[in-house]
Specification:
Elements (H helix, E strand, L loop, with lengths): L15 H21 L8 H8 L3 H22 L1 H28 L16 H9 L6 H21 L1 H20 L14 H22 L3 H23 L21 H20 L1 H4 L3 H11 L1 H21 L9 H25 L9 H6 L5 H20 L11 H11 L34
Helix pairs in contact: 1-2, 1-3, 1-12, 1-13, 3-4, 3-6, 3-8, 3-10, 4-6, 6-7, 6-8, 7-8, 9-10, 12-14, 13-14, 14-16
Length: about 450
């Protein structure tokens, strides 16, 4: 029977599953970056989060394309709304570019938390480098380019034959990008070049086009589809990480590369997000009111703001972790504090926007009640205050202690090569799949620690 747990939505309504899937990608992104920045997790949890369950980068891009197709494709099919849809996408691309500029400049302030204190370029030079796209965050810039191309992509997606044409063009572009990684790529796009990562974005758009048809399938067919993607994901994961588990016959990690993106790594990302989507869709009637869906949905509704804020949260949590090395595996609890901080930020933003929507001219006697609308509710305030107090206590206990010498794996490799007098110290190129952010080079590399996801 068709999927009765998902009610068909009008074009103006929001599908809560999209927010949930985006939120899952953001949580995974946060945890992966904490792992690769050096946060200690108990036992095999760190390897599980950092390798086997790593899907955030590809999943986030895939869901972005999926969301645009779900929202804008019905409008592009309606001649009365087609022009406004194109204009809306154009405005969105410009907005994302402005956010890219602001975020890239703000990430400089994260450097003290990373214990990097300069030298920095002049203010004018820094602003000029950001404006000319010589410095900054490459993932946001990727979204700027793809959203700007979306009117054309949606036009091709409207028809059947043109969809096949779109798939062919994207496959050719991916092949060329894999063979020539620097082609049509700006200097700052070393992690997310458009020519390769567009494949996951367009794949999301194609799935978004056929999502209503998938919802109409019988439960048996949806179970078979999810089981197939799960099995394929298990096989690919064993090929990618089996060598690290001592399965020598499965050691094919060299086929899975994020920078540049290989075909098998892109397929692994795709299978991960399809498996999550299929499993959550099958269980939606049972989990839609759960705390996990509420948490992830809250993050997903404010995905852009949460993505930017997670860079700050990761830097803050790692700064605390470096002060408490004696915690050992208990440092993993700081990951929960990081999730709570992001959830509180998203919750406050949503309340603030609701207050703005209800804003009107008011008298001075109403000012206090209006301003109270900006404050979080008791539950949000209590959870965020508890996390803040806990972190403040940890910092106060260790404020007189010098920061211990703790090195991430990449720092240790670079320093070891330097001590050994190697002329080919690996630096940023130790492992294309590691992508841990070391101390920024001179004059400055403002790309935050968000590459490995």
């Amino acid at each position: 029977m068709p999927n009765s747990s998902v009610t068909p939505l009008a074009w103006s309504q929001r599908d809560p599953r999209l927010d949930f899937w985006r939120g899952l990608c953001l949580i995974d992104m946060l945890l992966v970056h904490l792992v690769y920045e050096g946060l200690i997790f108990p036992g095999f949890v760190g390897e599980l989060l950092g390798q086997w369950m790593r899907f955030a980068a590809g999943g986030f891009i895939f869901v972005a394309g999926l969301s645009i197709a779900v929202i804008y494709l019905p409008r592009m099919r309606d001649p009365a709304r087609r022009r406004s849809a194109r204009q809306g996408l154009g405005r969105r691309a410009i907005y994302l570019l402005l956010v890219h500029y602001a975020a890239s400049l703000s990430f400089v302030l994260v450097s003290p938390l990373r214990e990097y204190y300069g030298p920095f370029p002049s203010t004018a030079g820094l602003v000029l480098d950001v404006l000319l796209l010589r410095q900054g965050n490459d993932l946001l810039l990727f979204y700027v380019v793809m959203v700007a191309l979306c009117p054309l992509l949606l036009e091709l997606l409207r028809g059947g034959r043109t969809t096949v044409l779109l798939v062919g063009v994207c496959v050719i572009a991916f092949a060329l990008g894999s063979a020539y990684p620097d082609a049509l790529t700006l200097s700052i796009q070393h992690n997310f070049p458009v020519v390769t990562w567009q494949a996951l974005f367009v794949a999301g758009m194609i799935v978004g086009k056929y999502l209503p048809g998938y919802d109409a399938l019988s439960r048996r067919r949806r179970i078979a589809t999810t089981a197939g993607s799960s099995l394929a994901l298990l096989v690919l994961s064993a090929l990618a990480f089996g060598g690290e588990c001592g399965w020598g016959f499965m050691d094919s990690a060299w086929l899975f590369s994020k920078s540049p993106l290989s075909a098998l790594e892109a397929l692994r990302y795709l299978l991960w997000i399809l498996t999550l989507m299929g499993a959550s869709d099958l269980l939606w009637s049972r989990i839609r009111s759960s705390g996990l869906v509420a948490l992830a949905g809250q993050l997903g509704r404010k995905s852009l703001a949460v993505y930017i804020a997670h860079v700050w949260v990761v830097a803050l949590i790692i700064a605390v972790a470096w002060r408490v090395p004696g915690w050992g595996p208990w440092q993993g609890l700081l990951a929960l504090a990081a999730i709570v901080l992001l959830w509180g930020w998203a919750r406050w933003l949503e309340q603030w926007e609701q207050w703005r929507r209800n804003e009107r001219l008011f008298t001075l006697s109403e000012m206090s009640s209006r301003l109270r609308g900006l404050l979080p509710d008791r539950a949000t305030a209590g959870i965020c205050a508890s996390a803040g107090v806990a972190m403040a206590m940890m910092l106060s206990v260790h404020r007189m202690m010098p920061a211990p010498v703790m090195e991430s794996p990449l720092h240790a490799v670079v320093r070891g090569a330097a001590i050994a007098g190697a002329d080919d110290a690996p630096g940023f190129e130790v492992d294309a799949n590691t992508d841990i952010l070391p101390d920024p080079p001179v004059p400055l590399d403002m790309t935050p620690g968000v590459e490995r996801a």
